[in-house]
Each structure stands twice: as structure tokens, then as C-alpha cells.
Write a structure and sequence with these properties.
The structure is a single chain. The protein is mainly α. It folds into 2 domains: 41 residues, no CATH class; 117 residues, AhpD-like, CATH 1.20.1290.10. 61% of the residues lie in helices and 0% in strands. The chain contains 9 helices and no strands.
């Protein structure tokens, strides 16, 4: 249980009801990670357009890559909520639990193409030491064949989970059990 009261959808009014209705339209339920933000309805609404099934609003990357990025960022952030949640999504997308589990231990042990490894190294660095990012880091991604729109999507997903992981941890959310 979260450490803060969650407003159930049936009790929502005004801005929160509008936000919840938007989430219900795309997700069919209100995830706890959204519900703990109910005290700031406009924030809930602002994040309503970012969900796994639309690659967190990033078209230049696919779901597999979006979840790889989310998992690596969540592990780097030390999130006991985000890391297993995104690893579980990754396993569902790939059908490969061992591949997904390797991301929880050390993504560098996963069987990745060099291009993906370079991108995930960038995600790790951005998550752990954002103040140390350089133009050379971005040029390294381009040298591996990543396009600027893909790089923007990578930064967006990485940064989104820097925020969401902290929200989850601040309110004591627990990762759902494996199904």
C-alpha cells in the first residue's frame, strides 16, 4: 500500500476526474503510480499521454527498446518499483524471461547488439551522472547509427523514469508480483 491516500476514480471530480477519464480511456484502469499523484491533478493529466503501449509517446523507437531503456534507467535509479515492473514488461514483449532478468542483474550481460549496448551505456550514464554528459556521448550514438529522433526518444524515456521512479519510491509503491 502506498504511504499516501489514493483517490479512487469514483471519487474524482473536476481536473482529477478529467485526468482519470483520460487514463481510463487508454489503460482501462488507474495504475497506482498515477493515483499517488492525485493531489496534483494537472500533473496526473499531463502524464496521461505517456504509457507503455504507445512507447511513452515516442514513435522513433519500438516497445522492446523503450522497455529496455526504462529497465536500465530504473535499475540505475535504484528503483525497487520501476526496475522489476519494466523488466516484466520487457519479458512480455520479448517472450524471453532470461533476457529480461539479465537487465535486472547487469544489462551488459544481456545478449545485445553493439548498437543497443552503446545506447544503453548512454542511458546508464545519463541516469547515474547526468552532469557528466558531453557532446561526444551523443556523437557516439550517431556513430552507431542512432538518429537524432531516436536519441531524443531515448533521453525522453530515460528522463521520464528518473521522475517516475522517484515518485514511486517517495510514496512507497511496491512492484506488482510476477504473474
Amino acid at each position: 500500500m502506498p504511504w499516501i491516500e489514493i483517490a479512487p476514480p469514483e471519487d474524482a471530480t473536476g481536473d482529477l476526474k478529467r485526468a482519470y477519464d483520460r487514463i481510463l480511456t487508454t489503460r482501462g484502469r488507474i495504475p497506482d503510480i498515477r493515483a499517488v499523484m492525485a493531489g496534483e491533478p494537472l500533473v496526473v493529466e499531463g502524464f496521461a499521454g505517456f504509457f507503455p503501449e504507445n512507447n511513452y509517446a515516442c514513435n522513433p523507437i519500438d516497445r522492446r527498446l523503450a522497455e529496455m531503456i526504462a529497465t536500465v534507467a530504473s535499475v540505475a535509479n535504484g528503483s525497487g518499483f520501476g526496475a522489476p515492473a519494466h523488466a516484466r514488461r520487457l519479458a512480455g514483449i520479448t517472450g524471453d524471461q532470461a533476457f529480461s532478468d539479465s537487465f535486472l542483474r547487469d544489462y551488459r550481460s544481456a545478449n545485445l547488439a553493439r548498437k543497443e549496448r552503446v545506447l544503453l551505456d548512454y542511458v546508464w550514464k545519463l541516469s547515474k551522472t547526468p552532469g557528466e554528459m558531453t557532446e561526444a556521448d551523443m556523437n557516439g550514438l550517431r556513430a552507431e547509427g542512432w538518429t537524432d529522433p531516436q536519441i531524443v526518444a531515448t533521453v525522453h524515456v530515460t528522463s521520464l523514469f528518473a521522475y517516475m521512479n522517484r515518485v514511486a519510491e517517495a510514496f512507497g509503491l511496491s512492484a506488482p508480483a510476477r504473474s
